[in-house]
Amino acid sequence: MNLILLFDDDFTHEPGTARLTGRRLRHVREVHRAEVGDTLTVGRLNGSLGAGTVLSLTKDAMELAVALDAPPPPPLPLTLILALPRPKVLNRVIIAATSMGVKRLVLLNAVRVEKSFWQSPRLAEENLLAQRVLGLEQAKDTRLPEILLKKRFKPFVEDELPAMARGTEQLAAHPYDAVPCPVRAKGPVTLAVGPEGGFIPYEMEKLKEAGFQAVSMGERILRVESAIPALLSRLYPL
Amino acid sequence: MNLILLFDDDFTHEPGTARLTGRRLRHVREVHRAEVGDTLTVGRLNGSLGAGTVLSLTKDAMELAVALDAPPPPPLPLTLILALPRPKVLNRVIIAATSMGVKRLVLLNAVRVEKSFWQSPRLAEENLLAQRVLGLEQAKDTRLPEILLKKRFKPFVEDELPAMARGTEQLAAHPYDAVPCPVRAKGPVTLAVGPEGGFIPYEMEKLKEAGFQAVSMGERILRVESAIPALLSRLYPL
Fold first, then answer.
1. ipTM here
2. A31 at B interface, C-beta within 8 A
3. Taking CB atoms and an 8 Å limit, are B232 and A230 in contact across chains?
């Protein structure tokens, strides 16, 4: 937690004062080991970054005097279209993409996505929010990414994706019939990443019809949680 | 498992024949769902890649006719000096680094490495080997990376690191007083990555005395399991 993310509900009637309990309180007490008078890095959800000075701190609650004055880091101009990963990996992938600045993540069905993955409790709105918050706190960001769940591949790729990807470079990470993945994207990108085992030929055909180019990162096949940071870092070396 | 890694002990007295049991057998039966006559991608530890044709397959063992004829992918010319991560993350980081082609990984102590991490059973030789094998199988590689455990920061950095890093570009991922991390390394690199919370100033001083330059990936702070693929992909975009 490199930043404490504050929600509207955290602010009290006292102007510029926030009151925290629960997970963030425990973290400040046990990891930061903060005391009254200490200053912590804070940010307001979808707002600015700044400093929170500890006004009071007990095991039940903490009050902060909050001054917000700096913009969050710029977002990555990239939409990530990701075949739904297995539940064990999902949280980590959401944190990784969020921490790198992705602001729109589409979790898409594909033939090699096991049907059971869509039943995972990790897809509950509450968990999807919690993981994005962890990613924002990690990267000292405040802007919550959007997550869209698309359980039907064909209608999404045919009917929604072309408008969503309009004006962007459209790349599908797929090592066959591919060109090398660009180093430094020229502008906004829509990046599609397949499931373990990859998109099937029909799915690649549909993506190509929608304007995607297959791109490769080399002969090594990476796990999705490594492939995503590797791809984003290559497209947008800051 | 994009490749089945074969060890010397797997080969039978029959030339070109290997016999597998255990984890690899289960994977071939349950995930690949292979049958007699099918061909699987195989590689010999520290040797060549090739094909294994299933000669027999029962629930107890599988025999393969093995033909090895292709070199493994080129290694990444990078030594990774990594502050020992928390046990929960260690396996994933070893798999990530191995799958990206790192051939020497030094796990180093630092002030912000909790002492208990060094007691983790995950540091047992058996587990370190198992994770590297998973990384090689993931990336279709055969060359086992070396892992060195260095529990004393100062003697390692003062006495061993200069010789180890000689002739390489020496970079420490550290966002303060840093230059931007190069995009495309000019040649071999020795890359130091600190613990959660970073190297302390004394440690950075020691690394600088040993020839390291602090480099930054931008204002976002990434978890180590994302930072490593992001750094490697930026230094060596294939």
1. 0.94
2. no
3. yes
